Predict the 3D structure of the following.
Amino acid sequence: MTEIVVTKAQGGYLLPADDMSREVVAKWKLGQGVRVEAQKIRNYKFLKKFFAMLGIGFDAFEPGEQEYNGLPVVKNRKRFHKDCIIAAGFYELVADLNGEVHAEAKSISFANMDEDEFEKVYSAVADVLLQNVLRNYTRDDLDRVVDEIMGFVT
């Protein structure tokens, strides 16, 4: 089951609320029925702020190698998000079919993480971005840019 986030728009319509939700909905055929379990979520604006912050980091991120074994290396937004969450210390260790252990990012879904833990993730991911990608930023710089993107500052 895929979890998406929607917001209620004028006229009572439900619209995808973020890029990942839009990608999921875009794959549905027009008129396709979808089973939905509605659950009011934690502070949605804070989640949007988190993804705005990750977007700043992703846009600034440049992968080190441009080619690996003759294949091009590309940036991947989902992988970047997961790697930031893992680097921030919010992960579980899992074993693959070969018995090798890997870190898997904890889910930040509303069903899996409460507001207090999400605030810790936000702060820790901000630190990861500042240390690894946005080295020319201070925390105040990052907060200001995120607030500008979110429309909190004019």
In short: The two ends are 39 Å apart (CA to CA). Residues 53 and 143 are 8 Å apart (CA to CA). Helices lie at 19-26, 44-60, 77-87, 115-132, 139-150. The longest strand covers residues 91-95.
